[in-house]
Amino acid sequence: MNTDSVELKQLTLKEVLVDKKLKIPPYQRIYCWKEKTVSKLLEDIQNIDEKEKYCIGSIILQKKNDENYDIVDGQQRLVTLAMLFLQLKLDTGISLLDETFEDSEAQKFIQYNKYIIENFCTRNNFKHPKQLLNSIILNVLILNDSSLDLAYTFFSNENSHGLPLSDYDLLKAHHLRYVPFEAQQKHLANRWDKMILSDKPNDSDYKLYEQALAIYIFRLRKWINFDWWNEGEKYNIKNEFEAASLIDSIPPFCEHFNYYEPIQ
Q1: Digit-coded pLDDT (tens) for 58-77
Q2: Smallest Cα–Cα separation from 239: which of 222, 258, 257?
């Protein structure tokens, strides 16, 4: 990897949230921070002094052009902070508030966390709310290379905040990088999210996708090929169903594969 394609900067929240147009790429998991995590972030920044600089960790952005950036890691924190500034009426110029969350589960988290933030602000005073954008700082790793391969590498290896990435989060991100059109990416991402968030059948301990991929197809492939596997190994499903990196073209909407093939 060319060192010019990656740079590390320490930026204020204003330089990230206001000065840059942030987008959430389709390969990201849905917004899903729970009340405990939201409250902890609010408590951490509530008493920041006017002249204090307070670092809230690291994020990863991918530069698309001079103004637009995709969020590779840090979506949950940045969306939560954008909602806080909306509540504090300090939201001018925060492009992330214009993002649409099409997934119904993400919409529920957004609605509930807006309620949590509103209640927190009603019960607590921020010491210097107008200074928060300049007082809060982030360690920002910027990917100047716009390739999806590079973004996926960092997404899969560096995504360290909130819930850990599952086999299915990584499979989604891995395969979307081969889809050339954004409309296709969004279509597939929405279908994948609906599948992952679907309810378990009443007569089963597993969701349908877990039955299909993790129990039946995974084992069929192993048995047919006389392969041994470690049941407790991390990312069994991800490693088994990843597509090869030599795919030159993808069928429309990528919705066909056979037992012997990687998912494409």
Answers
A1: 888 989 887 899 998 889 99
A2: 222
Which residues have CB under 8 Å from 199's CB, separation 6+? 207
| Closest C-alpha among 190, 228, 194 to residue 209 | 194
Cα three-residue angle 40-46-50, rounded to 5 degrees: 145
Neighbour count for residue 40 (Cβ, 10 Å): 10
The CA distance from 161 to 29, in Å, is 12
Under 8 Å between Cβ of 114 and 131: no
Global pTM value = 0.70
Q: Which two tokens stand for residue 176?
A: 């979307």
Chain position carrying tokens 């649409």 = 100
pLDDT in tens, 141-186: 888 876 666 666 667 665 544 556 778 888 888 777 777 777 888 7
Residue 104, both tokens = 């119904």
